[in-house]
Amino acid sequence: MENQVLTPHVYWAQRHRELYLRVELSDVQNPAISITENVLHFKAQGHGAKGDNVYEFHLEFLDLVKPELVYKLTQRQVNITVQKKVSQWWERLTKQEKRPLFLAPDFDRWLDESDAEMELRAKEEERLNKLRIESQGSPETLASLKKGYLFMYNLVQFLGFSWIFVNMTVRFLILGKESFYDTFHTVADMMYFCQMLAVVEAINAAIGVTKSPVIPSLFQLLGRNFILFIVFGTMEEMQNKAVVFFVFYIWSTAEILRYPFYMLSCIDMDWKVLTWLRYTMWIPLYPLGCLAEAVSVIQSIPIFNETGRFSFTLPYPVKIKVRFSFFLQVYLIILFLGLYINFRHLYKQRRRRFGQKKKKIH
């Protein structure tokens, strides 16, 4: 006996951009679903209210829809999604004012217009937030990029200062004291590179990339660069002095302990020996470095006075000659002020790092 053609129960709901239809048919086979001339055509074999039969219906939409549709078969029903051509709210689904008997609202998905507008705004905000996150990068991605950037910066600085330290050590073992007097010409280019790159460190502290306080970082950067670029770099007479060896050697010794510690911190590693060296070796190295820098400034004062470099005369009516040596003497005061600031900062760091263990012992 030929199967009887019947109409299934259809439930509908809408949003501003979409229509949702739920056809109450289970075990659907061979569905033929299409939209032609703004009419939805449905025909399928399935089990509905009248048993296993061929079910069919046609719906002419109230307004224009896109001819492409999406449907999904489940064990109990057929879900159809139709896109409206214009995003707007419809007063009803079909062009005919009288609702077909087989059609009813889908209260599981039903929203009134105001609720649908709120849902639409929420989806739009979610979409914009997603785009914003994609353009800016997720917090996890930014954290990984930050760690990678800091790791590479510390690695480059470690390699640079290691080269200086090894070069000076080997030359001293081979040449002895003779190596003191040509240190500048041997390693100055690498020291220039490392100290110019150290500007990044102060910038990182200033913009919050690292948690280092700005003032100590800036004091160390400006102090070292003043010695390197002004006292040593502009005066050839200073470049052949033994004090250059001691300044460069102390700087490089401090940095080959500091930068590996920061590198391991970027990948959440803690090597206890390196940590102890990082928070302990500054105690002798910082005062020695400050003393070596002070000696270099004192030795440069008569040379700057003799050459008159960077000295100037104040304009009329004062006409007083200001020697650069005056600024060098002021710098000596600032140098020891910087030593105090850095010493205090590093002491606090060491106490935070090791203080708790000491309290437990007592």
Structure description:
There is one protein chain. With 362 residues, the chain is α+β, with helices and mostly antiparallel strands. It has 2 domains: 10-111, Immunoglobulin-like (Sandwich); 143-354, no CATH class. The protein is 56% helix and 19% strand. The chain has 10 helices and 11 strands. The protein has helices at residues 113-136, 139-175, 183-197, 199-207, 214-232, 236-239, 243-266, 272-278, 282-307, 324-361, and strands spanning 5-6, 10-14, 18-23, 26-36, 39-48, 51-60, 65-73, 78-84, 103-105, 312-313, 321-322. The longest helix has 38 residues, at 324-361. The N and C termini lie far apart (98 Å). The model is unreliable at 357-362 (pLDDT under 50). One of its GO terms (biological process) is negative regulation of intracellular signal transduction. It comes from Physeter macrocephalus (Sperm whale).
Rg, Cα atoms, Å? 39 Å
Query: Which outline best applies?
Result: elongated
Structural class: alpha+beta
Number of structural units classed as domains: 2
Stretches where pLDDT falls below 50 for ≥5 residues?
357-362
SSE run: EEEEEEEEEHHHHHHHHHEEH
Instruction: Give the biggest sheet.
Output: 5 strands, mixed
**Strand order within the widest sheet?**
7-8-3-2-9
Instruction: Kindly state the percentage of residues in helix.
Output: 55-70%
How far apart the termini lie comes to 98 Å
Tally of helical segments: 10
* Chain-averaged pLDDT: 88
Strand content: 15-25%
Query: How many beta-strand runs?
Result: 11
What descriptors fit this protein?
362 residues, alpha+beta, Immunoglobulin-like, five-stranded mixed sheet, 11 strands
